[in-house]
Automatic annotation (TrEMBL):
Lineage: Eukaryota, Metazoa, Chordata, Craniata, Vertebrata
Protein name stated in the entry: Endonuclease V
Gene Ontology terms for molecular function: DNA binding; metal ion binding; RNA endonuclease activity producing 5'-phosphomonoesters, hydrolytic mechanism; single-stranded RNA binding
CDD domains: Endonuclease_V (cd06559)
This protein's GO CC annotations: cytoplasmic stress granule; nucleolus
Subunit structure, as described in the record: Monomer. Interacts with PABPC1; the interaction is RNA-dependent and stimulates ENDOV activity.
This protein's record includes keyword Zinc-finger: no
Coiled-coil stretches: none
Key words of the record: Cytoplasm, DNA-binding, Endonuclease, Hydrolase, Magnesium, Metal-binding, Nuclease, Nucleus, RNA-binding
Subcellular location as annotated: Cytoplasm, Stress granule; Nucleus, Nucleolus
Primary localization: cytoplasm
Amino acid sequence: MSAPPGEDLVNQWESEQARLRLQVVEEDTEDWQRSPDFSGLERVGGVDLSFIKGDEVNACAQLVVLSYPDLEVLYEDSRMVTLTAPYIAGFLAFRETPFLLEALQRLERNQPKLRPQVVFVDGNGVFHYREFGLACHLGVLSGLPCVGVAKNLLQVQGVHKNEQHQSQIAALQKGGDSFPLTAASGKVLGKALRSSDRSCKPVYVSVGHKISVTTAVRLTHSCCRYRVPEPIRQVAKDATKALKTSKYRRPLKICHLWECA
């Protein structure tokens, strides 16, 4: 069992988050974002870092790029990596971002024409303890528009999975319906989105970087064939295949770091 992280490291990471948080842009910056049908958007990316439950060191860093609006896979990058940073709740980005950023940089070097115009991140953006989750961290460091999409509700800043929240979910009648995730301060940190008519369970969408929450929700819905947006769904499928065939395989459940923590 690894030793608990020191207070100095937590303070260092909090300071770094606060510094980078100032660079987050929570509004639309690209022409395609302002188009009703996202005209000009041709490539959407998805990233995730997955591991085999019970193994805190070896993980699979994944990047996929899909065409838009057809959502066909154009590019896949799958690498087994060794994690060095400890897991601390609220600081997942320091554990994952370096490997996801490396995947984007490899794509930029090897096939720059396939560089995604927006990246979906399996996790949260400004819907976070300090309004700087993984999608924000990756967005600021990569300079790319990023959207955070989480499958589970992070109970933070006055947002709780209570009766009111459940009744709001029940009121979502069709794919595309959403309601705001409002902090105790009154700020909207993201939205719960019913992403598909097929599923009544919402996903939780928040701004990562260089996109507004309204556009992020609209884009997420447009990329959903099922509950989870296709860039994230495809990256999860690829990760499962890679982990099952890697030398690190073992008969344990494959899961995402942010879900299993």
